[in-house]
Amino acid sequence: MGYSLKCAFLIACLFAGWAVTPISVAECSVYPLEVNGDGTQNLPLSMDSVLPSLQKSWGFFYSLSLSSTFPDELNEYCTELLHVFGQRYDAFANCLVSYARPVKICENCYPAFNNLGEIYKNISENLGPGNVSCHDSLMRSDRLMLLYTLFSKFDEIWTIAGCQQCLAETSLSNDTLFFMGTLNLSLSCFEKYQGNHSELCKDCKVSYKRLNELYGRMEKNHTLCIDIEDAMNMTRRLWSTNFGCSFPREETVPVIAVSSFMLFLPIIFYLSSFLHSEQKKRKLIHPKRAKSSSNLINIQDKFS
């Protein structure tokens, strides 16, 4: 009876995955023990030596699967949406990394971002076949809300980059395409005169000036994104630092004139204030003189 209880406890430990007690196999063996010639019993192997083989053949007893313990809350439609979301999330992440330097994420990754936004909308808003909604099961089934958090981070990156300002619905805007064409003209000119910077500064001045003016207008109209900003910064660095170019002297004359006027403006102000105050003093003194002279005339009349 004692052996049976130990065997039952050993089997329960095996099924529950707990630590196995040091009970030998002989205590639970249903076969008769072998007897040696000297009358001693030949005991089977201990549990310590048998346990590895048991773990190998009965491994599922030691690691219960959660999928068999908890019921599956997702139907087939929601499971498919989750799979598609993972694929599109991975595609957009790879695109961001691929075009991180030089920055060209807006012009190259907007299809992947639109696809990710579409599947996210299907999960969070739209209904599937039979009016099935996956919003609660995929978006709000736990405190982490993983899908919402993942999409929010990418949407934040997209917003900070200002990519929507370079797009027109599902394609690049005309302003963006026109800027890219003007930029290519300047870069082609730079490449043409790589070995002669003096000629480069002279012959590429017109195209570079046009590019700067276009960038200024787009900045005022709020049609810039990170792609255009990064491209313009690199072009300006090439023009000024790498090639040592600058605008000709006549183009800086208006700037010098305005600066000179601003410097002399305080002097003009104080000079005009001084002249105005002197004029007021004269006006105040004149009536006193007139009054004293009239009094003098009255005194002379009395004496006469």
Largest sheet: 2 strands, antiparallel
Shape: elongated
Total number of β-strand segments?
A: 4
| Helical content band | 55-70%
Strand content: under 5%
Arithmetic mean pLDDT: 76
Distance between the termini: 161 Å
Instruction: Report the radius of gyration as a whole number of Å.
Output: 45 Å
Stretches where pLDDT falls below 50 for ≥5 residues?
15-34, 57-68
Report strand order across the widest sheet.
Answer: 1-2
| Class from secondary-structure proportions | mainly alpha
Number of H/I helices: 13
> What pattern of helices and strands is seen along the backbone?
HEEHHHHHHHEEHHHHH
Outline the fold blueprint:
Layout: H1 2-16, E1 34-35, E2 41-42, H2 47-57, H3 59-62, H4 66-69, H5 76-98, H6 105-124, H7 135-139, H8 146-160, E3 167-168, E4 171-172, H9 174-192, H10 197-203, H11 205-220, H12 226-242, H13 253-303
Antiparallel strand pairs: 1-2, 3-4
Helix pairs in contact: 5-6, 9-11, 9-12
Task: Output the keywords.
mainly alpha
Structural summary, described in words:
The protein is mostly helical and 304 residues long. Helices cover 68% and strands 3% of the residues. The protein has helices at residues 2-16, 47-57, 59-62, 66-69, 76-98, 105-124, 135-139, 146-160, 174-192, 197-203, 205-220, 226-242, 253-303; strands at 34-35, 41-42, 167-168, 171-172. The strands form 2 sheets. The protein has a two-stranded antiparallel sheet. A hairpin with a 5-residue loop joins strand 1 and strand 2 (41-42). Helix 9 runs parallel beside helix 12. The longest helix is centred in the C-terminal third of the chain and has 51 residues, at 253-303. Mean pLDDT is 76; it is low at 15-34 and 57-68.
